[in-house]
Please model this.
Amino acid sequence: MADAIVARQQGDDFQARYFWLQASLLLDETSPVRRVLFETGPKAFDDVVVEYDANGAPQDHTGKPVLRDHMQLKWHVRPGDFGYEDFANPDFTNSTSVSILKRAREAQLAHAPLGEGARFQFITNWNATDPLRKLIQNQHNTLDIDRLFQGGPASATGRFRGHWADHLGIDEDELKLLVRTLGINLRIRSGADIREHLNDRFARLGMKPIPASEAGFSYDDIVKKLHAQGRKDFDRKSFREMVQDEKLLADTKVPASLTIGVKSFMHAIDSLEARTTESLNLVPFFEGRYLRDEESWNETILPALKDFVLSHAKENDGLRLVLDAHVSLAFAVGAILDVKSGKSVQIEQRTASRRFWYRGDLVHDKNWPKLNVEVEALGSGVDRAIAVGLTHDISRDVRNFIAENLPDIGTLMTARLETRASQASVQGGTHAIELAETLVDQTRQQGRSPRTHLFISAPNGFTFFLGQLHQAIGPTTIYEYDFDGLRSGTYSAGLMIS
Model:
């Protein structure tokens, strides 16, 4: 009984924090979010519902606008797994008779009969098992329709399709419409993760953050109070009135700069469009994280990126950047807004305690880990390679890739922190800039190279700041790593910056 009570309490808190994550955007006049509800909507997809303005609404994985997001959150105290068969089992979601798959079908027929315009997201901290796991596209948390509908009835995907279609009593064409609207989000690991994300958002939007030193999170209790009062549906006006009545607004608000974003893949928690004033959507140029065969990094992606960034930089001295994007793009945006641009730039960084990184965001600490750079002669080639491993040690992978693919490289510079690489190695903008400047100083000491081949495992904030110093490095090719292992399992060339 104790475990059940804890699980229910943590599940309620998880749902409450997800509500605040979405509803707080109602205070942002530039956000397309116009209405947020909780425990209201189609059964089993009513934990949190978000409605968007048609102008600026996020896009689904096919490029169609999404006007409503219906979210079902399934929280578990202990780790576990689930497969596609569980979606057809009412016990999986503690239902007495109706599976979550049937609820999704009912919701799809009611709100997205043509397979577009609404999403139905199943959000959990459990892991999916194969073949379901292999079909989840991480960049936008949807199922790979093309792969699911390949293979005959006896194949793994055929059995998957057959199980769902038989359970629902529909044919495969009808199943396709349902699958197009279904999302499966496995990236939410804990309520603490959302708490940190919330505090960053609250600070930006003028709401009171909850200090990390406090064990409780008072916003959880406010949602319980609102539920008891029957207040579960908020638009911009009613939400602002509510946070004023509950004294949730901070005394001061961080001055706003123009917030622009670039995405080449979809983020798990919330859409980039909801967090920015203007955004550039490059997702259609990619299949997952891989550039489509008919597209070109430098002939298609780079011109679009330059036009977007420069058009806003010309009109604004202060910019906030949100990059849900490849390492090539983070470096390229830095190169476009280089240190001579005269712009005040902040960049969103998810892996650190501070939401936006910029020069001077932290006072220098002598105990921050410093950068060690080793120089190694590989042969008689005239090009140079740089392997930067701040979050992971990539030196072996880079060395193997060079040996097999880049005979013109004569020198390898390996940049590591003096402490173990991790996601928390870089402390903030001030630290990231110091590390970037140290690396550039080392490259200057080695002299110019006809071309530098750059491999990076680091926060996008560091990569952006390094890109701002690109002129000191010279012509550079940035490499992308095949994280999913679906192509080469190693590196491939991305953008080339002159």
Notes: Residues 258-357 form a domain with the Rossmann fold fold (CATH 3.40.50).
